[in-house]
C-alpha cells in the first residue's frame, strides 16, 4: 500500500532538496531565496492539471534520492553502457561528428556538454549548465530568471522553481550567426523522479541560431515526471529556431513550460515533434510579439495507446505589424486523446494571426478536440482559423495498393505525407529517425 503523503511532508522534502541543491551548486543567496519563495507558494497554488492529481504529484515529490550517473564524466564514452546505447540508437553521435556541434545531455540532475563550445564562447556563444551560469553571469541570469512566470501560478510552476536542477543557459552575442544546430538532450534514468531543467535563451540583436531539444527515456522507466521550463528573450532582428523532439515512453508525464518575448523585427519558430509524448503531455506556451515581430508555433503529434495530449499556445501581438501562426498536425491512434487550443490576441494595428489544426483519426476510439480562439482589440487586424479532422480515405488506400503497396505500407506513406510539410526544417539525421518511429507506430510496432 502506498504511504499517504501530505502537503507538509512534501514541503519538508522540498526544503531538504533546496538546501542540498544550494550547497551542491554553490549558488548565491538570491537564487536560494527564489527557491524558498516558491516553496511558500507551493501550498496554496492551484494544481490546474487535467491528469495528475495532487496525491500523484506528492508521490513524485516523495521519491527517495537515487544514484545517478558516475561522477567525473568528460566524454560520451564515460556514460553508462545502457545510456550510451540509447544515444547511439537516437543518432546523436552521428550528429555530433557531422556538426562538431554542442551536445548537452541531462540525466536526472546532471548535465554533460561538449568541450567544443568553449571555442565558440570566444566568439560570443555561451552555452553553460544553468547552475554554472548562475555563478559566472549572476547579473544576466538575475535579470532574466523567472521573469516570464510567477511562482504562484500553479503547484507545478512552484515545484519547478523550488527544485529546478540542470538545464542550459544559452547566450548569443549581438550579430553572431551560429552555422550549426545546437543539440540539447534530456533523459530520465530513474523511476518516479521529477526532472526540472531550467532553460534560459538570450538572443541579442541580429543573431541567428537553431536549438534542438530532444527528450527521451529508457523503456523500463516507470511513472516519471518531466517538468522543464524555457524562458526565451529575442531582441531586435534576432532569428531563432527551437525544435523539440519528444520520444518519451508511455509511463512519463511531460509538462513543458515555454514562454518567449519576441522583439522588434525578430523571428521565432518553435516546432514540437511529439512522436512519443508519454502518458500525458500538457503544455500552454505563451509568446509576446513586438512591432513587426513574428512567431510560428508548429506541433506534430502522434497519439497512441491511451495517451492524453493537451497542447495550447497563446500569442499576444503587441506591436504594430506583429504576426503569428499556430499550426498543428496530429495522427491519432488507438484510444488516445489529442486536444489543441490556440489563442491569438491582436493588440496593435495591422497585426496578423492564423490558427490551423489538421488531424488524421486512425481508430474509431481515437478522440480529437480543437478550440481556436481569436481576440482582436483593433479594427484592422487579420485573424483566421481553419480545422480539418478526418480519416484516411479508402480511395487513397485503393490507389496506392493498386500500385503494388500492401495496406500497411500504403498507410505509412499517407501518414508520412500528411506530416511531411512540417518537417522541412528538421536536420536529416533526425528526420530519418522520425520517419522510422512513424512507420513503427502506424504498423503497431511500438
From TrEMBL:
Residues 187-418 form the SUF system FeS cluster assembly SufBD core domain. SUPFAM superfamilies: Stabilizer of iron transporter SufD (SSF101960). It comes from the Archaea. Residues 121-182 form the SUF system FeS cluster assembly SufBD N-terminal domain. InterPro entries: Fe-S_cluster_assembly_SufBD, SUF_FeS_clus_asmbl_SufBD_core, SUF_FeS_clus_asmbl_SufBD_sf, SufBD_N. GO terms for biological process: iron-sulfur cluster assembly. PANTHER family: FES CLUSTER ASSEMBLY PROTEIN SUF, UPF0051 PROTEIN ABCI8, CHLOROPLASTIC-RELATED. Belongs to the iron-sulfur cluster assembly SufBD family. This is Fe-S cluster assembly protein SufB. It comes from Thermococcus eurythermalis.
Amino acid at each position: 500500500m502506498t504511504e499517504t503523503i501530505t502537503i507538509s511532508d512534501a514541503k519538508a522534502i522540498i526544503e531538504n532538496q533546496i538546501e542540498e541543491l544550494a550547497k551542491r551548486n554553490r549558488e548565491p543567496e538570491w537564487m536560494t531565496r527564489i527557491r524558498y519563495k516558491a516553496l511558500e507558494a507551493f501550498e496554496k497554488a492551484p494544481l490546474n492539471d487535467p491528469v495528475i492529481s495532487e496525491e500523484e504529484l506528492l508521490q513524485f515529490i516523495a521519491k527517495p534520492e537515487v544514484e545517478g550517473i558516475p561522477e567525473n564524466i568528460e566524454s560520451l564514452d564515460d556514460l553508462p553502457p545502457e545510456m550510451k546505447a540509447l544515444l547511439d540508437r537516437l543518432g546523436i553521435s552521428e550528429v555530433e561528428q557531422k556538426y562538431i556541434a554542442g551536445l548537452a545531455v541531462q540525466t536526472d540532475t546532471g548535465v554533460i556538454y561538449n568541450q567544443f563550445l568553449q571555442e565558440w564562447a570566444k566568439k560570443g556563444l555561451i552555452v553553460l549548465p544553468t547552475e554554472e551560469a548562475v555563478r559566472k553571469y549572476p547579473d544576466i541570469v538575475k535579470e532574466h530568471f523567472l521573469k516570464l512566470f510567477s511562482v504562484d501560478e500553479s503547484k507545478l510552476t512552484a515545484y519547478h522553481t523550488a527544485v529546478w536542477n540542470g538545464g542550459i543557459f544559452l547566450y548569443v552575442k549581438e550579430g553572431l550567426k551560429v552555422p550549426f544546430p545546437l543539440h540539447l538532450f534530456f533523459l530520465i534514468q530513474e523511476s518516479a523522479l521529477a526532472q526540472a531543467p531550467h532553460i534560459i535563451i538570450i538572443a541579442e540583436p541580429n543573431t541567428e541560431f537553431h536549438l534542438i531539444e530532444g527528450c527521451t527515456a529508457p523503456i523500463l522507466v516507470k511513472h516519471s515526471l518531466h517538468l522543464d521550463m524555457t524562458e526565451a528573450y529575442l531582441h531586435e532582428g534576432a532569428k531563432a529556431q527551437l525544435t523539440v523532439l519528444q520520444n518519451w515512453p508511455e509511463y512519463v508525464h511531460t509538462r513543458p513550460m515555454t514562454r518567449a518575448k519576441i522583439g522588434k523585427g525578430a523571428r521565432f519558430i518553435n516546432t514540437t515533434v511529439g512522436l512519443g509524448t508519454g502518458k500525458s503531455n500538457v503544455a500552454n506556451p505563451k509568446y509576446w510579439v513586438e512591432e513587426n515581430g513574428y512567431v510560428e508555433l508548429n506541433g506534430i503529434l502522434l497519439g497512441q495507446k491511451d495517451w492524453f495530449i493537451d497542447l495550447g499556445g497563446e500569442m499576444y501581438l503587441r506591436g504594430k505589424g506583429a504576426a503569428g501562426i499556430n499550426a498543428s498536425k496530429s495522427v491519432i491512434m488507438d484510444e488516445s486523446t489529442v486536444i489543441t487550443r490556440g489563442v491569438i490576441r491582436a493588440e496593435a494595428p495591422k497585426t496578423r494571426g492564423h490558427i490551423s489544426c489538421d488531424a488524421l483519426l486512425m481508430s474509431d476510439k481515437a478522440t480529437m478536440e480543437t478550440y481556436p480562439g481569436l481576440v482582436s482589440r483593433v479594427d484592422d487586424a487579420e485573424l483566421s482559423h481553419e480545422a480539418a479532422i478526418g480519416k484516411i480515405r479508402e480511395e487513397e488506400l485503393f490507389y496506392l495498393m493498386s500500385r503494388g503497396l500492401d495496406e500497411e505500407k500504403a498507410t505509412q506513406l499517407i501518414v508520412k505525407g500528411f506530416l511531411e510539410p512540417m518537417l522541412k526544417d528538421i536536420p536529416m539525421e533526425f528526420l530519418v529517425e522520425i520517419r522510422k518511429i512513424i512507420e513503427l507506430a502506424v504498423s503497431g510496432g511500438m
